[in-house]
Amino acid sequence: MTRRWLVTGCSSGLGQALAAAAARAGDELAVTARKTADLEELAAAWPGRIVPVPLELRDPDSCSEAVRTAAERLGGIDVLVNNAGVGLFGAVEEVSDAELRDQLETLVVGPWRLTRLVLPLMRAQGRGHIVNVSSIVGRTALPGFAAYGAGKHALEGMSQALAIEAAPHNIRVTVLEPGMFATRYGTSMSESHRRIPAYDATNREMLEGARGIAENAGTGRPEDFAARVLDIVGSDTATPLRIPIGDDAYGYLDEAEQAYLAEFAAARIIAQGPPLT
After folding, report:
1. Among 44, 82, 127, CA closest to 229
2. What's the burial of 22, exposed, middle or buried (CB within 10 Å: 0-12/13-18/19+)?
3. 163: exposed, middle or buried (C-beta count within 10 Å: 0-12, 13-18, 19+)?
4. In angstroms, rounded to a whole number, what is the distance separating the alpha carbons of residues 150 and 49?
5. Using alpha carbons only, what angle is made at residue 93 by residues 88 and 148, rounded to the nearest 5 degrees?
6. What pTM did the predictor assign?
7. Sign (positive or negative) of CA dihedral 243, 249, 254, 257
8. CA distance 169 to 167
9. Residues taking part in catalysis
10. Domains of the chain by range and CATH?
11. pLDDT digit string, tens, across residues 3-43
């Protein structure tokens, strides 16, 4: 069966690779970017299968128009992939209110808005799949990525509730948690305007590592990410809500889960034991 996709953030990286893989598999897609000029090469490679759509996630009217265009051009939407994102690096004390709002508008409010717009279409057709692209920092934390991690934690929280609400309507929900992939994320990531030298010891090395993600020998290929997503979306069997993508993701998240369990056990001892003195 030919699936109809709406995929955000397709000008490069994971979104671009996923769009190409889905088109190659015979599916039809509406792909988005802030500027459709960034989508011309992708659309030209798959004429008739890929429809470029402009989208500014922070603009409600732009979101409504993108969903309307996708549904009209494709005849419906079977799969929504909330992939578009932007990174902000900065310690908690360094990130301003305005920078935090901008980060959350893109990582949480925009995907939530698109989901709200697409759900009536999926309920009416009796099926659908919403795929929210999170990150390993959606379940763990890294210094300097507090704002980005807050957005991804919120996206995962929304997805967990959505999965329960949407299940009776035959709408699946999947959260993808990619590890390191060779994309422009590290180089395009912005930094908070304020810099406090006191945090350099914990954060600067992390920033340098993020800037060089694409060049790391162990970094994953976007094409491998895309292949995994196609497998998940095409699966006829139930899949977990959260699915890490990439070998390194499992390493990071296994460590995070073990730390969480240790913290939980320690908290239980405190809660059930004698008062702390």
Report:
1. 82
2. buried
3. middle
4. 35
5. 25
6. 0.93
7. negative
8. 5
9. 134, 148, 152
10. 4-248 (3.40.50.720)
11. 999 999 999 899 999 999 999 999 999 999 999 999 999 99
